[in-house]
């Protein structure tokens, strides 16, 4: 299927921007992406517009995304979205002339406009193209998969039915996982799951289209949930976060537990996915285990906060000494100081202003990445332009090009240097604390071992139950004894 002239150029710019903004975008399950033929990429929606940018950059297919019509209100942005073949989805509140109160005329207008949306999606699939959808319909900062809207299933099943079930549409579930909700130069994991063939639901659709849509939507929701951290009980989100914070790093640091073919980041994510499932397992069978772990974690966390140190310092403590840590800090600190200062000189102001504007404009954490990317893409070139021009006047084109190339590279180095320097400073402080308050640190280590031991026992029981589930008692046999 042919795409507009703007799409390849826009995707190249997006990939370049994301390569600078994120430390790395890792792709898992790329073998599940069909090289050709009609496909729908259905993803979770943790980071608003950034999700579409990451998904577009992470797949070799040209993707026609669905986006709510409110994004098209700005004329310039609307033109760019349409040029990149983004398909608008109309919601009742997106109608500019909609009545203030919700009512039938408003709903009818939105539904009427969405007839064109469904037709556009069918046309893309019939031509062998790819569609990108976020079927949750909303971005939230909750780490769970919300109930999916039925539009994805309707588009797939209706299109197949109109083409005699011979089109071969596939739905590829996608899990987007961001290491941080707000920090620049962190990692993203894009996981493509096993494709779902809507044609499997043909018999159900021919009997009852509404029921078939529900069945496919449920299957898709479960498939996406398997790819992300899905906390079904929001009241335990903080507990899951605490367990993940200490136990994920513990597991992936142990020898013999490496997952072949997986990066450290992806391995850690697989651990994170399993934690809510383990929690649910014990809440249903042995809730006392959950409360015991919670109490130990709270006590350990309070002790860490009192000492102002982090868990990874105890996990990777080794034989660290104050002298050794100061030597490490001074060694690389001196070597990297000059290029770091150079990078800060040219990049500190736009970096801080981009963050300031982004945090002011973003209404919640789901939009911070997007606004930082946009603000950075505008501010950094404007800030770099005057000095590059001055160098051009004095050193010519090649001199200006060489100078311009050093600006973003030195800025990224400076950011990494500052983060490294802060981390090394913490390790110096920890080594000093260990030397001067050895008993206190030993007590912290003891509390940590209690937490780890409790989690190890729970994990072993959980894995045993998964490998050898208890047989169900046949009906009518309860109470039958000797």
Explain what this protein looks like in three dimensions:
This protein is of the alpha/beta class. Helices cover 62% and strands 8% of the residues. The chain folds into three domains: 6-225, Glycerol-3-phosphate (1)-acyltransferase (3-Layer(aba) Sandwich); 234-315, no CATH class; 322-443, no CATH class. The chain has helices at 6-21, 48-58, 75-83, 104-126, 151-162, 202-207, 209-225, 237-252, 264-285, 287-307, 311-315, 322-361, 368-436, 438-467; strands at 24-28, 39-43, 63-68, 87-89, 130-133, 170-178, 187-192. Strands 1-7-6-2-5-3-4 form a seven-stranded mixed beta sheet, sandwiched between helices. Helix 4 crosses helix 5. The longest helix is centred in the last third of the chain and has 69 residues, at 368-436. Residues 96-106 and 473-482 have low confidence and may be disordered.
Strand segment tally: 7
Main sheet attributes: strand count, strand direction, barrel closure = 7 strands, mixed
User: In what order do the strands lie side by side in the largest sheet?
Assistant: 1-7-6-2-5-3-4
Number of domains: 3
The first-level CATH class of the largest domain is given as: Alpha Beta
Using the coordinates shown, work out and report the CATH topology of the largest domain: Glycerol-3-phosphate (1)-acyltransferase
Question: Beta-strand level of the residues, as a percent range?
Answer: 5-15%
